[in-house]
Specification:
The chain is of the alpha+beta class. It has a single domain, classed as GHMP kinase, C-terminal domain (Alpha-Beta Plaits). Helices cover 37% and strands 16% of the residues. It starts with 7 loop residues before the first strand and ends with a strand.
């Protein structure tokens, strides 16, 4: 799938751990059909946003009902971090996997977005690291593990 190339991922890694086991324990055994449909709809919207550059789709497309609401209590000031990212210019934000990393996508001012997220963690006495990464238009492919956070990435 072609992807508009000027997007940046801002990845904020707070200085606390969330075990995958603990995060999975928070998930319900079953989800409603409405929640499953909600999430499946967002997959299409997210793909459309990436392929067409329709920035207005990202915020809604990155909403979730299957894991984020249940895992939020493990993620520190999650909603504050999301709101700070949006106010600083993020197009969308979400928990990365089981957490605690937070992803935000933006076209402009990734440093401003990451710093806004970091300020929220700082205000709660939580340190964090931030990385800004480009989206690789080639999609999934084999890479050198050192290249992920190497010279092609901007760490602030």
């Amino acid at each position: 799938m072609p992807v508009v190339e000027d997007y940046r991922w801002v990845i904020v890694i707070p200085d606390f751990e969330v075990s995958t086991h603990a995060a999975r324990q928070k998930l319900p055994g079953e989800v409603s059909l409405d929640d499953a449909i909600f999430n499946v709809q967002r997959v299409g919207a997210l793909m459309a946003a990436f392929a067409t550059g329709r920035d207005e789709l990202f915020r809604e497309a990155m909403q979730d009902r299957l894991h984020q609401p249940y895992r939020a209590e493990l993620m520190g000031p999650l909603e504050e971090v999301f709101e700070a990212a949006y106010k600083a210019g993020a197009l969308g934000a979400c928990i990365s996997g089981a957490g605690p990393c937070i992803l935000a996508i933006c076209r402009a001012h990734p440093g401003r977005v990451g710093n806004a997220m970091r300020e929220v963690y700082d205000s709660h006495g939580i340190g964090c690291r931030m990385h800004v990464l480009r989206i690789d238009p080639r999609g999934a492919h084999e890479i050198d593990a050192g290249a992920v956070f190497g010279p092609g990435a901007l760490s602030l």
